[in-house]
Amino acid sequence: MSAASVSPVDIATFVVKARSAYIASAKHIIDKVQLASSGLLKPLTCLQPGNRTKTSSADYIAKLCDALPLSIRSDQVKDEWKLMQLEQEEAEIGVSDGVRIEKYWKHFMTLKGPDGGPKYPSVSMVIKACLSLSHGNADVE
What we know:
The structure is a single chain. It is elongated and about 80 Å long. It is mainly alpha-helical. It has two domains: 3-32; 39-136, no CATH class. It contains six helices and no strands.
């Protein structure tokens, strides 16, 4: 059968059936992926460097804290996050530069408080746990 002998109706039918198959496949994947079904994909957006200062990001980091098996109170994480939102970024890790996410967050994790300890210890634990999710689920290379 040549391409010239296929009718436009057959082509349209094929496209509709193929689209339906792709939609069904995507819905199945979304239903089966734990992060998607647990509602954690949206809160993970607070870890994007450009979203750190958005007002919704404080609620998102608290939701992530509650969802992860960490022994940290979410209100403590939320308070630290709000303080961190006031923190200025250094020029070399600016959001517009397309800096790697681990380099961006390392800057905030290495900041020291007045006592010489980590400035944002609770937030750092949540961020490290979230960033390790993808590596923990990756295939062995």
